[in-house]
Design goal:
2 domains, Rossmann fold, globular, 14 strands, single chain
Length: 351
Amino acid sequence: MTYNFGIIGLGMIAKFHAAAIRATCGANLVAVFSEDESKADKFASEFNCAAYSDFSSFLAHKGLDAVSICTPSGAHLQPCLASAAAGKHIVCEKPLEVSVERIDKMIGDCDRSGVMLSGIFPRRFNQSTDELKKAIQENRFGTITMADAYVKWWRDQDYYDSAAWRGTWKLDGGGALMNQSIHTIDLLLYLMGPVKNVRAETRTIAHKSIEVEDTAAAILEFETGALGVIQGSTSSWSRSGHPAEIQITGTKGSVFMVDDRFRVWDFKDEVASDDEVRKKYGIRENFDGAGAADPSKIDFKWHARNYEDIILALNNRSVPSISGAEARRAVALISAIYESAQSGGNKIEVV
């Protein structure tokens, strides 16, 4: 079955969704909505779909099955609630919203309306992620002692000045953690499971006229007892960009994952497939970070993997991998980090 999608909000990320929808079997882009009529017309012309500047008319588009919300982060709630009330399935760009309270409202309304709610965390669908998850499930690390996430990216001042909502608590929901690092934070949670508590510090060092952090560091305690670190920034200049990195170490193994590649894949008890994993997913020559220095360089194919999972869930009437509850977890952790930083680094439970 083919599902007809409409896109709400036409910022930079909307083009990734449009390209991903077009590349996904069983998905079809039929409509776009923007309050700016000229933007809607231009986008619709590029992607061969209908343009709307009236939201009610957009939701009434004949045959519309699902919407993809690409508005600023703190403006996800209302289009989600309206779309759910209209019986449309919902795909929502990260973060699902800027607080767990707003996310819980989205989840509740979608459940009551009987529509699917899916977030966007494409890195979960990399084949290399599958290999790392499998190694954890097979206890190849022994006792996992540490699990860390490092996102040392750069955004220049022009990035924050390009839109009034960028760098605000109300619509961005946070800075380097909530906007840029959230993909890697979600992946850390997917691999390691829940975090019990956090202690954190945040700073705004490299940018002016923004409310949120551009530099953050947190110490984590996982429910398993493992310790970890999250470092996230948009204050770490690099010509090509530092890739996002996850490091997991234990009493019998260590893996350092750089974007979707392995810088280290090392286990005390080697198996026959380890050389193949290193060969297939090892660091390539001239490797740099996806979107680390320039967000326009992010590959839409990562989003397409997420959409493939969404179409599968719709066809099977099942829960998507990135359900509302799953997408909530990263926001809950980041919110606890912010609470700790605002309290002077006190230990905060993650709920």
